[in-house]
Amino acid sequence: MIYVPGDAAAVAVGADAVAAALTAALPGAALVRTGSRGLFWLEPMIEVATPAGRIAYGPVTPQDVPGLLAAGMPAGGAHPLRLGRPEDLPFLRRQTRLTFARCGIVDPRCIEDYRAQRGYAGLARALSLGPAATLDEVVQSGLRGRGGAGFPTGIKWRTVAAASGARKYIVCNADEGDSGTFADRMIMEGDPFVLIEGMTIAGFATGATHGYIYVRSEYPHAIAALGEAIAIARATGWLGANVADGGFAFDLEVRVGAGAYVCGEETALLDSIEGKRGQVRAKPPLPAHAGLFGMPTVINNVISLASVPVILADGAAAYRDFGIGRSRGTMPIQLAGNIRHGGLFEAAFGVTLGELVDDIGGGTASGRPVRAVQVGGPLGAYFPPALFDTAFDYEAFAARDGLIGHGGIVVFDDSVDMAQQARFAMAFCAIESCGKCTPCRLGATRGVEVIERIAAGEAVAANRALLEDLCSTMKLGSLCALGGFTPYPVMSALLHFPEDFTGSARRAAAA
Hints:
Elements: E1 2-5, H1 8-12, H2 15-25, E2 31-34, E3 46-50, E4 53-57, H3 65-70, E5 82-84, H4 90-93, H5 111-116, H6 121-129, H7 131-141, H8 153-162, E6 169-174, H9 183-190, H10 192-206, E7 210-215, H11 220-235, E8 251-256, H12 266-273, E9 297-301, H13 302-314, H14 316-320, E10 323-324, E11 327-328, E12 330-337, E13 343-348, H15 353-360, E14 370-375, E15 382-383, H16 394-399, E16 408-413, H17 418-432, H18 438-441, H19 443-455, H20 460-477, H21 481-485, H22 487-496
Helix pairs in contact: 6-7, 6-10, 6-13, 7-8, 7-10, 9-10, 9-11, 10-13, 17-19, 17-22, 19-20, 20-22
């Protein structure tokens, strides 16, 4: 058996061509397209099944295939591209893979493969516990929203369960639009059944009968994988009128977004599903009381829902044992930007930012010193190396005016101009604003203008003071997190990299 990833990241660097070359050279050989394991600098990384376990080779090109076959690759033969057992690679060995335990291992379009790897064990236990005890398990696990807000998932579910409504919904926010993030995509492409199972458990626990997965249009591979997996689950009794003969109904469908970043905000997402223009709704009412089509609605992101099956399968206490403080369990941390070892690293909360960037990520790909790291997407704060002792934890980042968001880390070396990065944050907000509230709609546009005046050396001190005042207005007055969080990258750049906001030429060290 030969395993070749069909994940978009691997396909982008030639995995389809490698699969075609293997098929042509070994007609009739069993070739499985899996998800990616998340070691992107080694993609396409192919694996072969041997008596000693799977053996990996990578990165492989179509031109490498004849030499690999001549070296006995199907039996794990020696070759310069031979990596050995994937689990022994330092990047994987250091991880705690709970949510991503099956990614890169199973055939994402084979429900038997999923079940052989403990798939649907969580739903089976939920059915044995009943809805109330299932809710208690999620509450006791300490699972918080992995989309960035960090709100306790079990409390949200319990609110929807207690709400009255003719119908209830489970909505998965898969509108993964943050820079440097790809965890949602990896799950949807590499292990879609775990998301389906998580949403089904949510439906059982709260009394919801229908679910929607809202996926950004830029993810065609994920949309295709989800569509096939949902059809398979429905045909085999894991979705439909009587799920797993458990006496409850739950079904799913995929809705494709049109590319608006603001539709990652939960209420704008609801408007989009309803066929309206995606605009942020004022709260209250909360979606848990009056959400999709005015009905009680659970809205969680992909990783939150995909974490539920392992919580139910192994118990809340086992999941809660991982992490620190109020941040329990594991987080899929995505390493991107100017970094040597980019990819997905799932670990318990508590690992430091310095460990992630310097040790696990290997520093910059350019070989130059790290100057800044942005955590939490385009609206996340910039942290300098002086803050690399910060633990990856919701409260630890908040204490330093940062946020972990969806777990994306983007690395910049010492050639970056932080004033231009601050300008980008304002420009991004101006473009992506839904336009409903004044601080976001107008504030971001004015922010771009003020930063440009600073860069041009015009009344620098006065314009810096104006920029700080503008950021305060946006942070406190915006209707949603788009305008409210845009000040984070701007203010952190001002605070930690003041030399870039003097109007003078870029530092000689960056030349």
